[in-house]
Every structure is written in C-alpha cells, then in structure tokens.
C-alpha cells in the first residue's frame, strides 16, 4: 500500500488531469501496488481543500480506474499542513480525512520549525488521532539535531519517509538523513509522495529496494486495518 501521493486532478500541486492520474496509477500497478491512499494537500493559504472536494475528486479517479479495469484499490485521505486552520479544525472537531487506524498525515513548515511541534503532535493524539509525520527527512532544520526525530517517535508520532528521498531527488543531505532514520529504525512507513510521473520513474530506477522490501510489510498492515 502507498499512503502518500497526489493523484486527484487539479486540486493541488499534483496531477492536473484525469488522464495524468490514470497514467500514474497504471504505473503504480506496474510497480506492484494493489492499494493506495492518495493524500491531497490541505494548506489554507494555497489549497483550500475540504472533504467534499477531495471525495468528489476521488470518485472521478475511481470511475476512471474502474473503466480501465486496473487491479488496484484507490482511497483518499489528506496531507494536513499544521497551520492555524488545521488547529481550528482540531479544536472544533471538524471532519478529518484519515488513513486506516484513524491516522492523520501531517506536514510541518520546510523553512522554520514550529515553536511547539511536540505539543501540537500530542494535542493531535489527545483528539483521538494517530499522527503520521510526512517526510521528516525533508525538514532540514532537524538535521543538526537528529535526536529530535527520536523525541517525536517516542512521543507517539509515526514517521513516514519518502521513497524519493532515497534516490537523491531532494539532495544529499536529505538522502543521508533518510538513511540514518531507516538505520535507526525510526521510520514506520514508506510512501511515494508522487506528484508526477517522473517521481515514479525515479522510484522504479532506485537501487534502494532493500529498504522497500523491509518496510513493505508495515505498509501492508494498513491494508488489514482498512478492511477490519
């Protein structure tokens, strides 16, 4: 199962057409995926997506997949940027789109850290969700203090690493941190974070398949939870 991608057309910086979405899903089938949760961005300054928008787009994609007869299950959650709007939704109890097991995929700012990252993730847990931090290896402000990753994991946050980070796509620093996180067993899930076809081409060419095979069983646990 892949738990992180951007395959609903024209609602974020991922695919822009149904044809593009279908081509990427076809490629994911070729890569061996049988289940996926696509996760559009919800960033209130950029992408004001709602459950209604995302689920409507999901039905469009599902219809195209059915018509093509592709052997893959397609579902949707969301990738929530931790901003004021996200915190307000948590406080008011608005509907959240989750991964199996009531998991909430969240992302942090790239340039500067939140002042209260640990407290925010704990609040997510208090609200009954299991936080999954998207691509922690890409937050370069953590690279000088790798103990922060252990603090997050010890605090109950699951960490999802991008397979693309193991290809050098985001640069050598991110690649090095990604491998350190894997070697120190701090990663719970791998995800493609595929936005466009070249991302999947890079994953296919990656020589890091040892990590993929080691972690695939953990992603597959979510398939069992999803059908429980």
From TrEMBL:
Keywords: Hydrolase
Entry's EC annotation: 3.1.3.48
Enzyme class: hydrolase
Name by which UniProt lists this protein: protein-tyrosine-phosphatase
GO molecular function: manganese ion binding; protein tyrosine phosphatase activity
Keyword Hydrolase found: yes
Keyword Oxidoreductase: no
Family: Belongs to the metallo-dependent hydrolases superfamily. CpsB/CapC family.
The reaction(s) this protein catalyses: O-phospho-L-tyrosyl-[protein] + H2O = L-tyrosyl-[protein] + phosphate
Source organism (scientific name): Dyadobacter jiangsuensis
Superkingdom of source: Bacteria
SUPFAM superfamilies: PHP domain-like
